[in-house]
């Protein structure tokens, strides 16, 4: 019996989605554009020179980007020694739940509800319910915004009034920011939890509590974020594995994304560095026949949305070094699949995710090209490796 590790590098897309134009993202390519910026000397803050990712490139990262999109990948030119390919999504979204659920074998069967990029963004009855549940006379925001920008802009008014800050993005999401001391962390989380059923009934994918601390000019979002996601529409890879009597571990925000369905033990941390420490521990302690499903979010949350090319490149290079340490301690028979859920090209316009294919890199299963595969094929392949039934739409590529 063997183990499987499914590792999602949040937003690390590789371009080439055949329907990118329908999302306004024709030409977006997170990895290729970062590599090109690094090679051109345009990502020198805290790092220098071409993008260096020898571990994942050695598995086939650069080759996967070129397969997906045909774009140049300076610095990512290794001859692949792992199994490599690129996956295409069929769900009609470029958001976290769509990508993760489909990687876990369940494409989204509905169109998500997204809020218009206008002011106001939200219907009056929704904000009335926020006010009722929060016990406030009003709300702030009511628009599309970056999470860091809106607390810088409205945080002082929030401290003065005590009103929650409500905002959204191009994703199907309703977010509420509030100060942990002025508004109260427990109160914020309870508010979002109470709102979630109303929004889920309207096919809004997530309600997110976004707590922050500090004073005007020095506000800081904390690690106490909570996502209340709509439940997957069918059993996922996590359920298949758990239903077969096997252990499942979730690292990072996987528990939130899957509404804890199919998850045995949840490991959460305050940063990607802390989550990697959990991953290293699980490499040594996870049970035979187990699935570990991990999400590393900071590529997306700290660098993609903020259009920070150098920061994204630093994060990729750091993660690559960590991946080498992790792979060195895996057991014979284990597989590790590195992939992503969508793109977030830091060279692109706006602040939102980008519709892209994603790399699929497999360590522990020999070497060779996988070609263009489906997101759901990742779940089918892990199920085959673990010897559990595939109840999804994908086919194994192993």
Give a structural overview.
With 398 residues, the chain is of the alpha/beta class. The chain is 36% helix and 18% strand. It contains 13 helices and 14 strands. The chain has helices at residues 30-39, 54-59, 61-69, 96-103, 124-134, 147-161, 180-201, 237-243, 254-257, 272-285, 298-304, 309-328, 375-386, and strands at 4-9, 83-88, 140-144, 165-168, 173-179, 206-213, 220-221, 226-229, 248-251, 265-267, 291-296, 335-339, 358-363, 368-374. An 8-stranded mixed β-sheet has the order 10-9-11-1-12-13-2-14, with helices on both faces. A hairpin with a 4-residue loop joins strand 4 and strand 5. 56% of the residues are buried.
Secondary-structure map:
Elements: E1 4-9, H1 30-39, H2 54-59, H3 61-69, E2 83-88, H4 96-103, H5 124-134, E3 140-144, H6 147-161, E4 165-168, E5 173-179, H7 180-201, E6 206-213, E7 220-221, E8 226-229, H8 237-243, E9 248-251, H9 254-257, E10 265-267, H10 272-285, E11 291-296, H11 298-304, H12 309-328, E12 335-339, E13 358-363, E14 368-374, H13 375-386
Parallel strand pairs: 1-11, 1-12, 2-14, 3-4, 5-6, 9-10, 9-11
Antiparallel strand pairs: 2-13, 4-5, 6-7, 6-8, 12-13
Helix pairs in contact: 1-12, 5-7, 11-12
Tertiary shape: globular
| Largest sheet data | 8 strands, mixed
Class per helix and strand makeup: alpha/beta
Binned, the helix content reads: 25-40%
**Beta content:** 15-25%
Order of helices and strands: EHHHEHHEHEEHEEEHEHEHEHHEEEH
- Total DSSP E strands: 14
Task: Average the pLDDT over all residues and give the rounded result.
Answer: 96
The tally of helices reads 13
Side-by-side strand order of the widest sheet: 10-9-11-1-12-13-2-14
Q: Unreliable runs, pLDDT <50, ≥5 residues?
A: none
Distance between the termini: 16 Å
Radius of gyration, Cα only, in angstroms? 20 Å
């Amino acid at each position: 019996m063997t183990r499987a590790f499914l590792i999602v590098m949040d937003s690390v897309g590789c371009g080439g989605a055949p329907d990118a134009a329908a999302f306004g993202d024709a030409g977006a390519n997170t990895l290729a554009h970062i590599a090109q910026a690094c090679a051109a000397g345009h990502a020198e803050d805290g790092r220098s020179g071409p993008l260096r990712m020898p571990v994942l490139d050695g598995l086939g990262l650069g080759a996967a980007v070129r397969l997906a999109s045909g774009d140049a990948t300076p610095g990512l030119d290794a001859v692949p020694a792992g199994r490599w390919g690129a996956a295409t999504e069929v769900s009609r979204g470029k958001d976290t739940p769509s990508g993760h659920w489909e990687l876990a074998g369940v494409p989204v069967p509905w169109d998500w509800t997204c809020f218009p990029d206008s002011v106001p963004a939200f219907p009056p009855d929704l904000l009335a319910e926020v006010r009722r549940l929060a016990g406030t006379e009003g709300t702030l925001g009511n628009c599309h915004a970056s999470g860091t920008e809106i607390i810088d802009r409205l945080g002082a008014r929030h401290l003065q009034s005590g009103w929650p800050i409500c905002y959204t993005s191009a994703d199907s999401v309703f977010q509420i920011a509030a100060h942990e001391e002025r508004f109260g962390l427990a109160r914020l989380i309870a508010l979002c939890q109470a709102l979630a059923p109303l929004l889920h009934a309207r096919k809004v994918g997530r309600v997110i509590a976004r707590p922050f601390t500090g004073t005007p000019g020095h506000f800081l979002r904390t690690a106490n974020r909570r996502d209340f996601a709509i439940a997957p529409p069918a059993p996922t890879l996590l359920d298949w594995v758990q239903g077969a009597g096997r252990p499942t571990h979730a690292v990072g925000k996987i528990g939130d994304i899957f509404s804890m369905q199919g998850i045995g033990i949840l490991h959460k941390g305050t940063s990607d560095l802390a989550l990697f420490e959990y991953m290293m521990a699980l490499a040594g302690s996870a049970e035979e026949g187990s699935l570990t499903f991990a999400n590393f979010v900071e590529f997306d949350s700290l660098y993609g949305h903020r259009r920070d090319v150098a920061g994204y490149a630093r994060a990729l290079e750091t993660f690559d070094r960590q991946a080498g340490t992790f792979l060195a301690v895996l057991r014979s028979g284990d597989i590790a699949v590195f992939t992503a859920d969508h793109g977030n090209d830091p060279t692109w316009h706006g602040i939102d995710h980008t519709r892209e294919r994603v790399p699929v890199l497999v360590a522990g299963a020999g070497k060779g090209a996988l070609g263009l595969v489906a997101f759901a094929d990742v779940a089918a392949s892990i199920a085959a490796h673990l010897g559990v039934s595939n109840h999804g739409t994908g086919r194994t590529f192993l």
